[in-house]
């Protein structure tokens, strides 16, 4: 199932990344948060002193889903993308 989940997640990521559909800011933040938690991508330095407002919102959105497992975050990401009919 993990391979299937990873494939579905990759497909959902491609859909979300390549859509021309306008997504509301709260939806974009949820996608971002689920993606970060699903991939555990810590490449951004959120603690930089010059943190701007957008990075602050992104960090907050991610921390709100930090309790999710990677698998759960992938599932929620896929479900959200599918619900947007991209």
Describe this protein's structure.
With 86 residues, the chain is mostly helical. It has a single domain (2-83), classed as Acyl-CoA Binding Protein, CATH 1.20.80.10. It has helices spanning 2-18, 25-39, 53-64, 70-83. Helix 2 packs across helix 3 and helix 2 (25-39) runs antiparallel to helix 4 (70-83). The radius of gyration is 13 Å and the shape is globular.
List the helices and strands and how they pair.
Layout (H helix, E strand, L loop, with lengths): L1 H17 L6 H15 L13 H12 L5 H14 L3
Pfam families: ACBP
Keywords: Lipid-binding
Protein name: Acyl-CoA-binding protein
> For the terminal residues, how far apart are their CA atoms?
24 Å
Count of alpha and pi helical runs:
4
In the CATH hierarchy, the architecture is: Up-down Bundle
Structure classification: mainly alpha
- For the record, the CATH class is Mainly Alpha
Shape: globular
CATH topology: Acyl-CoA Binding Protein
Helix percent band: 55-70%
- Sheet with the most strands? none
Indicate how many domains the architecture comprises. 1
Oligomeric description of these chains: single chain
What integer is the average pLDDT?
87
Question: Which band does the percent of strand residues land in?
Answer: under 5%
Low-confidence stretches: none
Radius of gyration: 13 Å
> Helix-strand pattern, N to C?
HHHH
Secondary structure: number of strands: 0
Organism: Paenimyroides aestuarii
Keywords: Lipid-binding
Domain ACB: 5-86
Protein name: Acyl-CoA-binding protein
């Amino acid at each position: 199932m993990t391979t299937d989940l990873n494939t579905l997640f990759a497909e959902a990521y491609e859909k979300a990344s390549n859509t021309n559909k306008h997504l509301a800011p709260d939806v974009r933040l949820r996608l971002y948060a689920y993606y970060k938690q699903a991939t555990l991508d810590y490449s951004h330095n959120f603690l930089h002193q010059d943190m701007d407002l957008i990075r602050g919102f992104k960090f907050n959105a991610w921390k709100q889903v930090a309790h999710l497992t990677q698998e759960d975050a992938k599932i929620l990401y896929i479900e959200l993308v599918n619900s947007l009919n991209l």
